[in-house]
Automatic annotation (TrEMBL), chain A:
The chain crosses the membrane at residues 26-52, 72-94, 106-129, 149-171, 246-264. Transmembrane (T) component of an energy-coupling factor (ECF) ABC-transporter complex. Unlike classic ABC transporters this ECF transporter provides the energy necessary to transport a number of different substrates. Belongs to the energy-coupling factor EcfT family. This is Energy-coupling factor transporter transmembrane protein EcfT. It is a multi-pass membrane protein. It comes from the Bacteria. The keyword Transmembrane helix applies. It comes from Leuconostoc pseudomesenteroides. InterPro entries: ABC/ECF_trnsptr_transmembrane, EcfT. GO terms for cellular component: plasma membrane. PANTHER family: PROTEIN ABCI12, CHLOROPLASTIC (PTHR33514). It is found in: Cell membrane. Keywords: Cell membrane, Membrane, Transmembrane, Transmembrane helix, Transport. One of its GO terms (molecular function) is transmembrane transporter activity.
Automatic annotation (TrEMBL), chain B:
Keywords: ATP-binding, Cell membrane, Membrane, Nucleotide-binding, Translocase, Transport. This is Energy-coupling factor transporter ATP-binding protein EcfA2. The lineage of its organism: Bacteria, Bacillati, Bacillota, Bacilli, Lactobacillales. GO terms for molecular function: ATP binding; ATP hydrolysis activity; ATPase-coupled transmembrane transporter activity. ATP-binding (A) component of a common energy-coupling factor (ECF) ABC-transporter complex. Unlike classic ABC transporters this ECF transporter provides the energy necessary to transport a number of different substrates including 5-formyltetrahydrofolate, pantothenate and riboflavin. Expression of the complex plus FolT in E.coli allows 5-formyltetrahydrofolate uptake; 5-formyltetrahydrofolate is not taken up in the absence of FolT or the EcfA1A2T complex. One of its GO terms (cellular component) is ATP-binding cassette (ABC) transporter complex.
């Protein structure tokens, strides 16, 4: 349970850590958007260089990112297999029953794998270097214009940050209840699927009871401190773009321009 | 049924970049039919230590020997289930583990998992509920209708129902009222009398001296001291400050007496002992 890297924040003081969370969010978004147009070795190579550079700037070991990819391995594999067998075209390389593997299929599969990996790595860079509350703040700030059309952005951001705050608590709680029930002989790894599914009940019920209790406690605590609505709140951390954010944007812009260049020249 | 730790080290996430060492070279023996208290400030590794007693955590290196079962880093889950049948584990705030429709069913959960037949499980659940003083009219109620104190006792019955030889409790007195605390100490004594090995974590030194035969002091993942309460609590006052622990009330009182020029031959554990010592040592003055 402790080795899930997706969305985990690793404290640090690297160049990337110190960037404004909005910058990281925009850069990540731009990168993912641009990746949708990658279609050749040149564009993928460039994107990989960009990601590797960004990883270096977080000053975290590559192994950490590698661990982060592991849980998504099966998803990637599934997509790769789909691409491999379901891309039409010539020449056909291999026949497997009614299915066939084509050369474009193989290329597509490799491209999809790289694309997936790079996108996940890029998002990992953002979540790994940004505390969840900062991500919620950044989202609130970036979506602020929607306030004009009466979207309750502040409330949504608050809900998001509370939800994020609850994730580690619930993980902890799950571990505790699991330990308690394991001590009473619970086993997830024996019996048929129905027996295994039933084994989860003694875990889920206490977890839900606890989560509801926590939510009530939090609601009470907020009300006691006079919470009415999120809109008029002031911020403890005020987001400010700095010089390094400009550098990050310029870097990203250069990346996008070269990308377009490669794309047009068709390498 | 004694418990032995041999050169046990433990790290969370061992072998990864985020490895976090918690326990360092633990060598302890916990004698059978005795009550052992584990004390130490928050974060000293007490809870991590006791999770090794029923294989919830396995030592990163070294071994834990419980009776004839040896737990090392490579012990299989199936072996651990055998171990867990012997060890009743009561966690901090155990009331959070309740889930069943009725109190009785919840307490039967453990015995059923450990292979008891339904009527056997029912019988041992009933005797466990009696042992912790849960009134019979509550047995068919939902555990969520009970008061906090009652829930705590039902959860304890849940750990005791499979009739374990070893009972481990992590801060069982936390959040109980004085009456509940007294009942808990009585339960610990009863368990000892029934021939069980009891290990408990406590922050209340008066509880420790009133029921424990042996004390283990943890600090920063090391065993800082081990011995009888009389030995451990007779240590130098500066040592207690260094491990961030308090003395029992009687010991504190004796320290204040000493600061005012009334010294006793050794530090008393209980108030009764304190009174006796003052009477005997200052009888003729």
């Amino acid at each position: 349970m402790n080795n899930i890297m997706i969305g985990r924040f690793v404290p640090g003081s690297s160049w990337v850590h110190r960037l404004d969370p909005r910058t990281k969010m925009i850069v990540t978004f731009v990168f993912i958007f641009v990746m949708l147009f990658a279609s050749s070795w040149g564009t993928y190579a460039l994107s990989a260089v960009f990601v590797v550079l960004a990883i270096r700037l977080t000053q975290q070991p590559f192994k950490l990112y590698w661990d982060g990819l592991k849980p998504i391995f099966w998803l990637i594999l599934f997509t790769v297999v789909l691409q491999l067998f379901l891309t039409p075209g010539t020449p056909v390389v291999l026949h497997v029953g009614p299915l066939q593997v084509t050369w474009p299929g193989i290329l597509n599969a490799i491209y999809v794998m790289i694309r997936f990996t790079l996108i996940i790595l890029m998002s990992t860079i953002m979540t790994l270097s940004t505390p969840p509350t900062s991500i919620a703040n950044a989202l609130e700030s970036l979506l602020a214009p929607l306030n004009k059309i009466h979207v309750p952005v502040a409330e949504l951001a608050l809900m998001l940050s509370i939800a994020l705050r609850f994730v580690p608590l619930l993980m902890d709680e799950t571990q505790k209840i699991m330990n308690a029930q394991k001590s009473r002989g619970m086993s997830f790894s024996t019996g048929g699927p129905i027996k295994r599914a039933r084994a989860i009940v003694p875990l889920l019920i206490p977890l839900f009871v606890g989560a509801l209790q926590r939510a009530l406690d939090l609601a009470n605590a907020m009300e006691i401190r006079g919470f009415k609505d999120a809109a008029s709140r002031t911020k403890y951390r005020i987001l400010l773009y700095g010089r390094q954010d400009v550098v990050a944007f310029i870097g990203t812009l250069i990346f996008v321009l070269i990308f377009i260049g490669i794309k047009i020249s068709g390498v | 049924m004694a418990i032995t730790f041999e050169q046990v080290n433990f790290s969370y996430g061992a072998g990864t970049t985020l490895a976090n060492p918690i326990l360092h070279d633990i060598n302890i023996t916990i004698a059978d039919h005795q009550v052992t208290a584990i004390i130490g400030q928050t974060g000293s590794g007490k809870s991590t230590l006791i999770q090794h007693l029923n294989g919830l955590l396995k030592p990163t290196t070294g071994q834990v020997i419980v009776d004839d079962l040896i737990v090392t880093n490579t012990t299989k889950e199936k072996q651990l289930t055998k171990l867990r049948a012997k060890v009743g584990m009561v966690f901090q705030f155990p009331e959070n583990q309740l889930f069943a429709n009725t109190v009785l069913e919840d307490v039967m959960y453990g015995p059923l998992n450990f292979g008891y037949k339904t009527d056997e499980a029912k019988q041992s659940a009933q005797s466990a509920l009696k042992m912790v003083n849960v009134a019979e009219n509550l047995w068919q109620k939902s555990p969520f209708e009970l008061s906090g104190g009652q829930m705590r006792r039902v959860a304890m019955a849940g750990a005791l129902a499979s009739n374990p030889d070893i009972v481990v409790m992590d801060e069982p007195a936390a959040g109980l009222d004085p009456k509940g605390q007294a009942e808990l100490l009585a339960l610990v004594s009863n368990l000892k009398e029934a021939g069980k090995l009891v290990v408990f974590i406590s922050h209340q030194m008066d509880h420790v001296v009133s029921v424990a035969d042996q004390v283990i002091v943890m600090q920063d993942g090391h065993v800082a001291a081990q011995g009888t309460p009389a030995d451990v609590f007779n240590r130098d006052i500066d040592w207690f400050k260094s491990v961030n622990l308090d003395l029992p009330r009687a010991g504190q009182f004796a320290e204040q007496l000493r600061a005012n020029g009334v010294s006793l031959s050794r530090r008393p554990l209980t108030l009764a002992e304190l009174a006796t010592m003052i009477n005997e040592e200052y009888e003729h003055e």
